[in-house]
Amino acid sequence: MGRSVVRSSKRHARWGLLVLLAALPAMFGCPKSDDPVYYINKLQSSDEETQRRAVEELVRMNKRAMPYITGRKPGESEKTLPAAIDSENPNVRKGCADFLAKVRRMESLVAVGELIDDPDREVRLKAIEAVSALAQVWRAKSIALLRQAFQDEDPECVEKAGEGLRNMRAEAATEVLREFYR
């Protein structure tokens, strides 16, 4: 009888430890969710770590998250859903640009192109970085977007667009740079 009590208490202790380990993330403010909207709402934070984690989770959900970011259902060209990329909050738009840079698809490049002319300078910089990161996905579209960004009033945006064009190492991108520096 003594051994069964010991085994039983060990078994209960293991279950208690497992329950505690499962509850730790929620106790420390980083619960997991399978809802992309939850993480899109986290993008509103000005805390960079919170934004980074939210983008990581959205990338993990990739196909489920994309319609909420772009406002387009798969296979549709028109926006039919509320899009995070159109949010009034610049932190959300920056987070969307980060997400799109990591999802290497033509759809991502088209969506991030909407942010090239954003009123917020930081969002434009993130969008330019995203276009540069997606350059191998659709080179001609990337060049067109970076050419557009190259005409920005902000010197840092122009510099970032120039870096993106230079890093492409493509003749068409070099031609854009030559055109502006003649």
List keywords for this structure.
182 residues; mainly alpha; 9 helices
Written overview of the protein:
This protein is mainly α and 182 residues long. It contains nine helices and no strands. It has helices at 2-27, 36-42, 48-70, 90-102, 106-113, 121-133, 139-150, 155-168, 171-180. The radius of gyration is 22 Å and the shape is elongated. The mean pLDDT is 88.
**SS field, number of helical segments:** 9
N-to-C series of helices and strands: HHHHHHHHH
Low-confidence stretches: none
Main sheet properties: none
**Radius of gyration over alpha carbons?**
22 Å
Residue-averaged pLDDT:
88
Record field, number of beta strands: 0
Q: Structural class given helices, strands, pairing?
A: mainly alpha
Distance between the amino and carboxyl termini = 92 Å
Shape: elongated
Estimate the helix proportion, in percent. Answer: 55-70%
- Residue share in β-strands: under 5%
How would you concisely characterize the structure shown here?
Helices cover 69% and strands 0% of the residues. It is mainly α and 182 residues long.
Describe the SSE topology:
Layout: H1 2-27, H2 36-42, H3 48-70, H4 90-102, H5 106-113, H6 121-133, H7 139-150, H8 155-168, H9 171-180
